[in-house]
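Summary for the steering committee. One of the milestones for this cycle was to obtain a three-dimensional model of the protein with 8-OXO-2'-deoxyguanosine-5'-triphosphate bound, which we needed before selecting residues for the alanine scan. The sequence and ligand used are listed below.
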Amino acid sequence: VHAGVTEDGPRVALYGCQRRTPLAHSNQALTDALETLAEEAGFGGSEGRSLAFTRAASVLKSLPGPLTSLGELSPLPCIGEHSRKVIQEVLEDGVSVEVERVKLSERYRTMKLFTKIFGVGVKTAIRWYQEGLRTLADLQERHTELTREQQAGLQHYTDLNTPVERSEADTIERLVQEAVWQFLPDASVMLTGGFRRGKQQGHDVDFLITHPQEDKEVGLLSKVIRWLDSQGFILYQHSQRNTYQLPGDPELLSSGGGSSMDRFERCFSILRLARLTQDKDLPPGSGAQGICTQGGCGAARGWKAVRVDLVVAPFSQFPFALLGWTGSRHFERELRRFAKHKRKMILNSHALYDMAQQMFLPAASEEEIFQHLGLEYVPPTERNA
Ligand code: 8DG
Ligand code: MN
Ligand code: MN
């Protein structure tokens, strides 16, 4: 039973944060099709259409069993005309002609190729596509025009598009803990992002770091990065310091108040992770300087490049940061939308602000944030909206 259910109301609640969405669900073929169209709409700059397909897919992910007939769609929210047509096609024929055409189209394939580069967003990919660029080799030729981040992304393209396994995330967690605890033994290091939601693979590894004594965490990250670098673990890193001021940072209340970008001290990095299983007898450092945009060369090395995000939150903001960095992205978007429209509150990864009472609502746990919002608690493994 989902939160928000009434006798004659919808059987599935309207907002993704009012539903439980497990990782494994029964409508993968349907949600894959809808998410391809969401992605394609985003590549075309149609954010609204993209969101509509994402919402439809998210509703299907929360269903307890496979959808077998179109009639079952009628009580469901967020299924627009276009989504319904795609669902019908997949139910009847197993595939959607439109989706198959998109997947084969030059623009979609090129945009996929480019947006999978670390440091490349949709806007940049569109520009390159419009300039006639089509391959990674085309980008290599314009190497000097790339940002440092994009150069690193291209250099480690194959590794960074090889899923990070749970065991690798655990190894990196121990490494980050070792680094952090040298400087602050009482600090806590938490695995967030997709792995906290129960995923067995991810595109990166996300960590949230805090210390029970507020302000102790200030300056920690640069020491951690310097140590990791001295040990040869850093292939790339970009750090930002904390730019959030409490209390009542006016930024929070301005238009971008509910945005997913936050202002914590953070480091977006690429770490050099030793391979656990194979290649044990390769000479140390072999291939370490190689540019690996082609498949296969990763296996010839004793290490793998892995994207790691490190975020440091002051203790009083930790529950908000944890909720914000656990995702999924769509769950977060729905939480913020629910807070704003149903509760007149502004939620982000730093705080929760009640506009009616004109006050910040503190919380010592994620559960308390759900309580403030009048939402049933959704555990991390059910936030795969
Ligand atoms: P994956 O890596 O397994 O593919 O999935 P994920 O772990 O869910 O995605 P992610 O891209 O690593 O993002 C994890 C969460 O972090 C996501 O819900 C959004 C959240 N997040 C913030 N602030 C910021 C920010 O400033 N930048 C980014 N990239 N993510 C942020 O709360
Ligand atoms: Mn992640
Ligand atoms: Mn991340």
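Key point for the committee: The chain is about 40% helix and 15% strand.
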